[in-house]
Amino acid sequence: MPLDLGWLGGVRVNLSAAERRVAGLPGRRTVKKDAQAAWLLKAITCIDLTTLSGDDTEGRVRRLCAKAVTPVRHDLLEALGMSERGITTGAVCVYHRFVAAAVDALQGSGVPVAAVSTAFPAGLAPHDVKLREIEASVADGASEIDIVITREHVLTGNWQALYDEMRDFRAACGAAHVKAILATGDLKTLRNVARASLVCMMAGADFIKTSTGKEGVNATPLVTLVMLRAIRDYHERTGSKVGYKPAGGISTAKDVLNYQILMKEELGRPWLEPDLFRVGASSLLSDIERQLEHHVTGRYSAFNRHAAG
Asked: Which domains are assigned to the chain?
């Protein structure tokens, strides 16, 4: 849709009300036993299993892909009555360098490959270089592209520049889904987060995402609430559903349950499915599998028995 500066001008965030909302979340909602196991299995299908380290190798990426296809041990799934459900993670997320290897490793599994792009994580390369990187990842088989916006556009209030940038990224992605990383820890205010969320949605983002995982502050429930309210507002005005992806610092089953509950309460049941909800994580899967083993056996196991890759 066209950039609507009037809409942006009316954006407000009630900080104290938002803080009260998220502070009360863990105490008001809880799931236990079979219900908790079901929520955690659903969370697995929404994980973008990620490796974004400077020492990544093709071997590490291929091991991660194997874990994405079989994220939970067969004996645990059998005990839960889920062995025939074909549970996999939502995607595998890697640098462009490893897209082709990941696509090859995941062939026939139905698990898509997401590539971080546009000079991730800082996003400060020339614009044409960012577009070529997107196109190269799509050519190598990535079906999802996680782009990073230019934070300066937000910090200086240059919403037209942000809109134009996002439109170019959307066009370069072609048929691939595009997730817009706002790097919320760099945006200074919740009002900036809300406005940047709306601009990226107006410009065609399929998902809005909190963080690269490299900022000083990454995903938080407070930022999540603001972004979910922006998604809800956008859906109510346009009828278009945009997905949400928190990333960075979500490492325990308890963490992801809180995000799932917030998604359900703010946006509704459809936003608990992987086409509208993803979680960028690396160690989260290990803790979920550990909690599922405790549910089945009554005993906690060591983390090293649940390696992510």
From this structure: 5-305 (3.20.20.70)
